[in-house]
Write the structure tokens for this entry.
Amino acid sequence: MTDFIHLLPDSIANQIAAGEVVQRPASVVKELMENAVDAEASEIKVVVKDAGKSFIQVIDNGLGMSETDARMSLERHATSKISRTEDLFKLRTMGFRGEALASIAAVAQMSMKTRIQENDLGTEIIVEASEVKSQNPDSTPRGTAISIKNLFFNIPARRSFLKSNGVEMRHIVEEFQRVALSRPDISFSLFQNDLPAYQLTKGKLTQRIVQLFGKEYKEQLAKVQESTQHLTINGFIGKPEAAKKTRGEQFLFVNNRFIKSGYLSHAITNAYEGLITSDHYPFYVLMLEIDPSHIDVNVHPTKTEIKFIDERTVYGIVKAAVRQALGAHNLRPSIDFDLDVNFANKEKFETLKDKRYGQFQTHESNTPEDLRRFEKLYQDVLKNEKADSENSENNIELTFQSSANDLLFGQKDLKESEKTSFTFLLHNVYIVTQVKSGMMFIHINRAHERILFERYLDQLETGKNASQQSLFPQTVQLNPTDYSLWKDIKEEVKSLGFDIEDFGGNTIVINGYPMEMHGQDEKKLFEGLIEQYKIFQSELSLPKKERISRSFARRSAIKPGTFITDNEMLSMIDSLFGCKNPNYSPDGQLAFFILDLNKIEQFFN
Ligand code: ADP
Ligand code: MG
């Protein structure tokens, strides 16, 4: 019997791995820079010649390596950064796969000089195509200097795939910019054929942006700052008028790692809707901080793709944060009334309103005008504050706490009747209430949509429903498309509390409807739900249950301009802060904010 299978020699295995990690000189620059960052360097120097084709060197003043570690670092799967599977979900380092150095050494000539603090003498290793040629003591400064000569010298086919120097250099600069932006607290320099291309001193992010892209950027930046329980967003976006015709200067980082995400870019671009045309791309540098256990970085060898456990929430928060930044700098039209007119609860509240408050009604068409004035007033405060905080990046403009517990109500210990006296309805659009740190404004429509959404989703997941039987069952004739759509979501619609019978021939009969919708036209309610479901179907791809909950919440949420009673206000506040994610409406629009006492004080200064 003859056996054919054998293990590949390391040199070949490394070359194959290198195919994924090392695509071009820029990949080497990226991997070496990231290693230097992981080694806690405060100064990193990159030198390239011939667009990296003949020479790349990265010098850092970081931790360095011992003689043995230096030797080990060249082995495949050799890393100091993780040791257990769990570590993958606690990652704080750029590297973790332990294959970059092995891969690079497999396809080039490498010299590594490194020294740790404790030793007087460092070590120098020379490797060529995975073969260690020599290792000798060497007097080298603390830190590591790695030089790569003649990339792909042993794989002529790959070498011939490299593009012109101009193109390869552009890739290098791109990688350099990404790492440099991710860590403004580190000094970086890039030398090209002995000439300095960038010399970046450590400082704030704004300063780094200006050093990399030019002075004119300073006036074009709007600050983004948002923090929720699981996600913090910081950074800058370009003002709409500064948007360019080419994509490119768009940088998204998650836990300091540059990532590419079509989905999140969409969230950002979407926030600019109506402010830039579709052939323009806004500038942005956004830093997301998220609990490493909520993401998976190990999706691709180059580590520029990641998976979020809760991608939709991240989408919503990113979009809202960008919108907030655009609004806070008075760049967006003041308020958007892109809300539905046709809604289920409208009649109920109209009647209520007319009956009880008819004579005090303000004319409804006045409301948006008043709101706009208020919005402007508020934004002016923010603008002033921004000017004040221009030089201190860490100054928080607005903090939105995510958890209800964090939000210590100033009125916590009050009796119900006392609570109402601190809570009022503003223009039938907002609830204004006193909280410990100032005054909270709740957007009723968005808050209600959030509350209903979570409630419906819960009903769909637990299968709990409360249905009310109709006295007069209603027959509804659907068109074939709607009929088959209804068939698709029949079970879920039932869980919401609809009792619907199929009569065949595209006809259904509604026998019962959700308990809390008492007194409404069940036919309209149902048709509204189907209509909204169709609209959402063509938008984001959401799981069925979520889409149904969103649709129904959108249809039944109280619309702006609707009067609600004191008790309804209080119960809305309670329900909102009982939500898992009270900060935003299901589609990521801000549901409330707090006007801080300090900010109120500023009105008087
Ligand atoms: P990874 O970064 O995924 O761990 P690498 O192959 O890039 O894998 O590096 C292997 C190991 O070599 C690292 O885990 C680190 O311990 C060490 N190392 C690499 N570069 C440096 C450096 N510039 N300074 C100190 N240690 C380094
Ligand atoms: Mg690495």
